[in-house]
Amino acid sequence: MYRVLFCLLWVSTGVFGQQGIQWEKDLSDALAKGKSTGKLVFVEAYLPTCPACKAMDPQFQNADVAKFYNQNFINYKMNLSIEGARGFLDERKIEIPSFPQFLFFNGEGELVHQGETVPTPAGVLSIGREAKDPSLWSSNFVKQFELGNRDFDFLIKYGNYARVSRDMAASKKITEAIWANFNREEIGSNVSWQITKKVVNDTDNEFFRYWIDHMPEAAAIEKAEGHEGQEGQVLGRILQQTIFSPESKMFPIEKVNQLEQYMGKVGAGMYADAFLWEHRVRAYLRDGMKATALQEGEKAVELYKQNGAAMLYVVQVFTSHVPEFVPLTLTWLQRAYPMLKENNYLAEYFYQMSVVSRKRGNVEESKQFAEQALEKAKLAELQLDKFIIQASQD
Description:
By secondary structure, the chain is an alpha/beta fold. The chain contains 21 helices and 5 strands. The longest helix has 17 residues, at 343-359.
C-alpha cells in the first residue's frame, strides 16, 4: 500500500519533487553547462509585472513542456526588473522589444535563435522544436532573405530577430519588403500595428508615418491587449532608434525638424534640443549656414552649462570645422575645464586645447597640451592613437 502511494507521489511531483522546467540559478553556470553538454541555453527574458509573462508561467509547468525543455536545453529565467540584469544582453547588443522573449544561446553565449509565442503548451513546444533544428534558427534568416525568401510570416520573424539583434539596416530592408506586398487598405489594422511594434525600427516608412498620426487608434489596440498607454513607448522607441542611428548625423535640416515634430507627438518635445542640437549643427554646416550653426552650439553649451563633459562634446563637434569657430570654442573649453575631474575627460580637454592652440598658430602651446593629453589618456587607459599623432606633430 505504502509502496503504491510512494510511486504515485513520485509520478505526480516529479523526480525529487521537481515540477515543470528546471531553471538554473546562475546564467554563467547555465552557459558552462550548455558548453559542456552541447545543449543550447534557453533564456526567458521577462518582467514579473508583465501580464503576458504571467500567462506564460503555467505553461512551463506543463508535463510535456517540462520534459522537452529539461531534456533538450539548459534553462534560465532572466528577470529584467533586477538592476544589472541587462548587462549580458547589452554586451551582445541584444534588445528586448517586448516580453516575454525566448532566447536560445550556444555555449559561447552567442544568440542562435529567438522568438515569441502564445501562452499555450503547444506554442512553447513549437518554439522549442524550432530551436532544436539548426536549419530553422533565426541566425539563418539573413541568408534566406538574401536568397529571396519574401514569405510574409518569414519576414515578420526575421524583422523581429533584426530588432532583437539591433540590425538597423536589415530592419529597414525587411520593412520595405513587407510594405511592397502589403494591402494599403489595411494600414490602420491590428496587423499593421503589430508590424510597427515588432519590425519597424526607423521613422522613414509608411507604417510609422501612419501610426504617428493615428495614435488614438494605436492606443485602442494596446488597451484591448492589456497594454494601456504603451503606444507612445512603441513609437518613441522607433523615434529614438532613428535619432541615434549612425546615418542620423547626415540628415538634412528638414528631416531634423520633422523628428522634432514627431517628438512632440509622443510627448517628448521638451527633450528636442538635448537630442537634436548636434543634428541641427551638422545640417547647418553642410548647408553653409555657419552663423546659425554657432547659435545652435551656444544654445547647447547653455543647456549643458552644469555638465563639463557634455560641453566638451559640443566643442568636439565644432573644432573639426572652419577656423573662425576657434575663439568661441576656446571660451567653451575654459568654461568646461573646472567641471572635469576624470582622466578620460581631462585627456579630451587637453587634446581639444592642443587642436585649438594649433589653429591659433601657437605651435609650442599646442605641443604642451598634446603631451598633457597623452599623459591623461594613458592614465585613463584610452586608445592612444589620436593622442600620439597629435603629440608628434611638428
